[in-house]
């Protein structure tokens, strides 16, 4: 997933960024709402992590404006505001989840996965695909009952296909999902990851449409 983190606390922001990157996801971190608005104009994000107290304003009006213009990107609020009234306001403004600081980073990863699955239309974390049994919550894969070890980047790529079954994804779209702004991406990076996934999960797990991109295969 490509995630936008809006957080002005540098210590917490770095910890969240590193946690997300360690999960194999791409994260762009900004510390102001105006910068976040610019980022959203130029990039399609799969999820937003939103602090409520930013140097240039509050997150609730930002979220309401986001929803008012028809943007349905999932939003998880990360805030120190812990009153029930604050939670109600955040959820009523259009947030999908609400986490109070300090929070456990592993729990944040779990909540990101849960929200993403709901938006993908499959809240069940267990997916059976051909001879593969995939546990999205545990980030694990069994092939004919035997565990398969994937790197964080391989998992993120495979998950991108699982979330969009039958959809053709271009190389540029996949790079956009896997890498943040400023990341150096080798020209053959996606091809290398796809090749490794095929070796581990089966030659037919990802199909190639020459010159167009890739899609989830039959396995």
Task: Please describe what this structure looks like.
With 219 residues, this protein is α/β, with parallel strands linked by helices. The protein is built from 8 helices and 13 strands. The chain has a 5-stranded parallel β-sheet, with helices on both faces. Strands 8-9-10-11 form a 4-stranded antiparallel β-sheet, with no helix packed on it. A hairpin with a 4-residue loop joins strand 9 and strand 10. The two termini are 22 Å apart.
Which helices and strands, and how do they pair?
Elements: E1 2-6, H1 10-22, E2 26-30, H2 33-42, E3 47-50, E4 53-54, E5 57-58, H3 59-68, E6 75-79, H4 84-92, E7 97-100, H5 105-119, E8 126-129, E9 132-135, E10 140-143, E11 146-148, H6 152-162, H7 171-178, H8 189-201, E12 206-209, E13 213-216
Parallel strand pairs: 1-2, 1-3, 3-6, 6-7
Antiparallel strand pairs: 4-5, 8-9, 9-10, 10-11, 12-13
Helix pairs in contact: 1-5, 6-8
Q: Can you tell me the overall shape?
A: globular
Number of strands: 13
Q: Helix-strand pattern, N to C?
A: EHEHEEEHEHEHEEEEHHHEE
> Mind telling me the C-alpha Rg?
18 Å
Q: Alpha-carbon distance between the termini?
A: 22 Å
Pick out the low-confidence regions: none
Helical fraction equals: 40-55%
Please outline the major beta sheet: 5 strands, parallel
Helix count from the secondary structure assignment: 8
Strand content: 15-25%
Average of pLDDT: 89
Strand order of the largest sheet: 2-1-3-6-7
Broad structural category: alpha/beta
Counting copies of identical and different chains, the oligomeric state is single chain
């Amino acid at each position: 997933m490509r995630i936008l983190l809006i957080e002005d606390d540098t210590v917490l922001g770095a910890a969240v960024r590193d946690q997300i990157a360690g999960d194999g996801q791409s994260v762009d971190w900004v510390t102001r709402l105006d910068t976040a608005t610019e980022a959203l104009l130029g990039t399609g994000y799969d999820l937003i992590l939103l602090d409520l107290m930013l140097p240039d304003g509050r997150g609730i009006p930002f979220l309401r404006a986001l929803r008012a213009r028809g943007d349905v990107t999932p939003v998880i609020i990360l805030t120190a505001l812990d009153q029930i009234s604050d939670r109600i306001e955040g959820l009523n403004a259009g947030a999908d989840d609400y986490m109070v600081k300090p929070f456990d980073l592993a729990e944040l990863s779990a909540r990101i996965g849960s929200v993403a699955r709901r938006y993908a239309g499959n809240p069940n974390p267990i997916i059976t695909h051909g001879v593969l049994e995939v546990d999205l919550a545990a980030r694990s894969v069994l092939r004919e009952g035997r565990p398969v070890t994937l790197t964080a980047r391989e998992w993120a790529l495979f998950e991108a296909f699982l979330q969009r079954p039958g959809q053709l994804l271009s190389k540029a779209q996949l790079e956009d999902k896997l890498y943040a702004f400023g990341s150096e991406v080798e020209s053959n990076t996606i091809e290398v990851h796809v090749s490794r996934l095929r070796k581990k999960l089966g030659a037919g797990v990802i199909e190639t449409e020459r010159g167009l991109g890739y899609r989830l295969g039959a396995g």
